[in-house]
Amino acid sequence: MDDIRKMVAPGRRALLAGAATLAGTAAGLGPARAQAPAGGTVKVGLLVPLSGLYARFGQLMRMGAELGVRHVNEQGGVPALGGAKLELLLFDAGDSTEKAKNAAQRMVADHPDLVACSGAYLSSFTLSATEVTERAELPMLTLSYSDLITSRGFRYVFQTSARAGDQAKGALPIMLDLAQQATGKRPETVAILTDNTASSLSFVQPVRDGAAGFGLRIVMDETFTPPLSDATQLIQKVRTARPDMMVMPITVISDVKLLVEKMNEFGLGRGRVPTIGAGIAMAQSDLLQNIRPAQLEGFITVVGNWDAKGQEAMIEEFKRASGEPWMGQNSIATYGDIWIMRDALQKAGRADRRAVAEALRSIDITEGAALYYPGRRVKFDATGLRENAPPVVVQWQNNRPVTVYPRDSATAELFWLKR
Amino acid sequence: MNAGIEGFLQALNAGLLLGAHYGLMCVGLSLIFGVMRVINFAHGDFMMAGMYVAFHLFALLGLGAVFGSAAGPFIAALLAAPVLFLLGYLAQRLLVSRVTGTRVGALEGEGHYAQLILTLGLSLILQSGGQILFGSVPVSIPSDISSEAWEIDLAGGDVVVFVNQARAWGAAIAVALVALLVLVITRSRLGKSLRAAADNVQAALYMGIDVDRAHRITFGLGIAITAVAGGLLASSYPFTPYVGLEYVIIMYAGVVLGGLGSTVGAFWGGLLIGVIQQCSALLLPTQLQNTAIFVVFLLVVFLRPQGLLGRVSERT
Fold this sequence. Notes:
Keywords (chain B): Amino-acid transport, Cell membrane, Membrane, Transmembrane, Transmembrane helix, Transport
Organism (chain B): Muricoccus pecuniae
Number of helices of chain B: 11
Strand order of the largest sheet of chain B: 1-2
Order of helices and strands of chain A: HEHEHEHEEHEHEHEHEEHHHEEEE
Distance between the termini of chain A: 75 Å
Radius of gyration of chain A: 22 Å
CATH topology of the largest domain in chain A: Rossmann fold
Mean pLDDT of chain A: 87
Helix content of chain B: 55-70%
Largest sheet of chain A: 7 strands, mixed
Order of helices and strands of chain B: HHHHEEHHHHHHH
Largest sheet of chain B: 2 strands, antiparallel
Protein name (chain B): Branched-chain amino acid transport system permease protein
GO molecular function, one term (chain B): transmembrane transporter activity
Distance between the termini of chain B: 57 Å
Strand order of the largest sheet of chain A: 7-6-8-9-10-13-14
Oligomer: heterodimer
CATH class of the largest domain in chain A: Alpha Beta
Main location (chain B): membrane
Low-confidence stretches of chain B: none
Structural class of chain B: mainly alpha
């Protein structure tokens, strides 16, 4: 019986805390607010998968956020709050939308003094977690791509990347122009090979709908459920269709290996069928432990963020501290999010989540935090979507993925095989 | 190029090669079920452990340098077998034996409830322990031949079939191991004791057979076999501590298709699943690959509930 009481006790405390919060809300007071003492600390959160299938991505996001907090604090914290330091709290979103939502509920119940958070890796996790943070009026910054995130009328979610559909619409004409410059001939046929995750489907939909507008004819269109057990059938179809280019958004590392190796096995890899992916899986450093990088040469992926000119010192420090071979979008985005939170706190002048949200809605910066986002401007529209966020095009060159677009951020030129 | 014929041959080839790997996995699970009547929900996770053991043996022993990166991964997969045999042997001795064998008489539902909870618990421990030990970064055993193929020209070059070298060698090893296991079970004294323990625990005890020992060997052997199957896949498939979840359903389907308790049947069941999975993409959307497996699975259960090679009558 005692054991049972011990098990129940924390839950009861949490329940009481939740009840107190609810009572406060009902009385029109809103969630408890913290006023950071001068020189004290301000709590910010990171809600990402730290266990389960997606833990690796969460760890990368954690590394970026921790570096961001360290840099902010080393550079004086938040001057408007008397130099208050940021304190990063971590919350494990686990490996399902249910766990992500539960983690968000614990986050808002246990930490009423949290002023902002970042997360939650997968769009589906972000969609469920923001249902909770919205009710708690806690601003949440996210790199997630789904079009739905900022189309629900929410006021406390801020999407820092271009949405998946916009990424495809933005990147495809650029690719076609580059192909024409390189080969003298514009691609006329396209194969679509995608997994059925939300972000991949959002990416290919504009291609399906607008292929004719781009002057493209779809010669193959295949959707599969990840993870694949074998890619032979899919690549055989590509071999039969002989497209001028392929759109292949993939979200699982094992699928990237199976597809890329099979393309090489069938003589279609290394740029022979120019392939445009979407998302981080095609440029994740983990690929180095699973595929010979030469096999990835020429593969292109469109992402929400990547390294850019002007970030060299920060990236070198990240590489030294983390042992990672490069700093990808997950780490850069959370690093940047911490700087946006700092700027918003500075603008708000108080450690209050409503005030921080209000500051985020009106923020318009082209320096500081803006350096860590493509387009180099942080301004959110009425829905919370970052305005004019361009897609970032990354291509494998000389055994690593490099930024080739936008041009002002590019660290290399895109190449397209002439044949 | 005759696209239709080429596509079919390519699918059949991929299905057979992958199916042989599935078959080997299923044989391990079937052996445990056949002899011990234990449904091992942790089987996929023991396979995961085998993949990691093969991966680390490959690196630690420098098998790539010694045998070359073509043969090294297969040697690593085979070397994982004794390690996983020991793990399975100990797991049976310390845990599983408490809810199996002669003790089931004292347990509710002939020990099946306790077995279910125990193996599910083992599964969770292996997954979480794997994440603590090995991390969450997907890894695979580096191989020079995972993306190399033999090109077979047919019909005067009109049809070309690509046979993946890593998968082909893996399938050959899988077939050889199944043949060896069948020989051991049917021809050796050890095999006779396993069969006796499978047929009737009490009778085997009365005949002087050490049933507990037979069960320990069975559990170790079943896990070692599946670990080799995992090791053979580990050069072409990146894995994490959660990889077992992706294969355990296929293993169950293969075992039921082949006939519960039939070792050879389990291999054919796994092989059939590989072929259905790959060939279904010729007729159905690729998204329905795994659905096709279970449609065929349900058909077999409906038309031939004992499975392809299962026995109709109850055991004595």
